[in-house]
Design goal:
alpha/beta, about 15% strand, binds guanosine-5'-triphosphate, binds magnesium ion, 8-stranded mixed sheet, Rossmann fold, about 300 residues, Four Helix Bundle (Hemerythrin (Met), subunit A), 13 helices, 2 domains
Length: about 300
């Protein structure tokens, strides 16, 4: 792996979350910065700040209640208590176990399927994961199973060329499952250790498109044992909770194992990650914090909580 040192990872996470962090800290203000006394006014300010960060009203109330309980145990409240309690509570809420992730058979590639609605960052994230795997000395292959538009295939091709890895593609309009079949064959014959399948953005209401995902899964599973080993549902943090109902169908039809939350660098409402994990009960695996291939971070609940709360 291209060794990313801890401080630089943390620095990138903080940069990505800067808008949310600044907004949260600015709003909580004295409640968190100076000596904290758990009076109703300070607690209200805290709750408002958390709601403004989009953690959701229920989570906001629960976090405030945890702070109240803990601060009440102290003689004199300290800002440190607030930070510590918030961090611990946020971390705990984000650390959901989620569905099991498959293990590839020895010598077989791990197959990861990217799914989601339009424009969330599926293609970019597939490229980021491929670049990361290649930098770590792995042998990734990309599959352009978004055959909906020629531009979608070209977009992935540009990334594959830039990273210097193989791309399996058909012409626009081709059957995505046929692309996946070929990609499985290519990945096996080349001894690849990772196959990343990009798919077209789709709405859950399009029954045939959801069927298409099922077919992709079936073909992959027939060609490579246990595939897809992971199904990543890519969500856009800027959209937040809007349209989350839409993605529920994906959990059923696509067998989602993890979430990717993109565009965390472009929102002051990064707290939405808490609301989303609470709502879907699926763990976040990666966070996108920009448009270049380096702008993808492994999601770590503790690091995330620290980036949100710590100065
Ligand atoms: N700032 C920022 N932009 C991102 C991030 N991830 C993706 N983008 C941008 O979001 C836009 C859409 O990204 P795509 O990867 O094309 O999204 P997609 O889900 O493949 O889109 P469709 O295939 O059309 O459904 C592009 O302009 C990306 O550069 C991120 O983490 N941060
Ligand atoms: Mg795409």
């Amino acid at each position: 792996m291209a060794e990313v040192s801890k401080p630089s990872l943390m620095a990138r996470l903080k940069r990505g979350l800067l808008m949310t962090h600044t907004e949260l800290i600015a709003r909580v203000g004295d409640a968190i910065k100076v000596r904290f006394s758990p009076d109703p006014k300070a607690l209200d300010a805290l709750e408002e700040a958390l709601i403004a960060a989009d953690v959701g009203p229920v989570t906001a109330a629960e976090l405030v209640s945890a702070v109240r309980t803990e601060a009440g145990r102290r003689d004199a409240g300290e800002s440190d208590v607030v930070r510590r309690v918030l961090k611990a509570e946020i971390e705990r809420r984000l650390a959901v176990p989620g569905p099991p992730i498959g293990t590839p058979a020895p010598g077989h590639p791990r197959v990861i399927l990217m799914v989601g609605v339009n424009g969330t960052g599926k293609t970019t994230t597939a490229a980021k994961l491929a670049a990361r795997a290649a930098a770590a000395g792995g042998k990734p292959v990309l599959a352009a199973a978004d055959t909906f538009r020629a531009a979608a295939i070209e977009q992935l091709e540009v990334w594959a060329d830039r990273i210097g890895i193989p791309l399996v593609k058909h012409r626009a309009g081709a059957d995505p499952a046929a692309v996946v079949f070929d990609a499985c064959v290519v990945a096996k014959s080349r001894g690849a250790d990772l196959l990343l399948i990009d798919t077209a953005g789709r709405l859950h209401t399009k029954h045939n498109l959801m069927e298409e995902l099922s077919k992709i899964r079936r073909i992959a599973g027939r060609e490579i044992e246990g595939a897809p080993h992971e199904v990543l549902l890519v969500l856009d943090a800027v959209t937040g909770m809007n349209g989350l109902a839409q993605v529920r169908e994906f959990l059923k039809a696509a067998g989602v194992t993890g979430l990717v939350l993109t565009k965390m660098d472009g929102t002051a409402k990064g707290g939405v990650i808490l609301a989303i994990v609470r709502e879907l009960g699926i763990p976040v695996r990666y966070v996108g914090v920009g448009e270049t291939v380096e702008d993808l971070l492994d999601f770590d609940p503790a690091a995330f909580a620290a980036a949100l709360i710590d100065d």
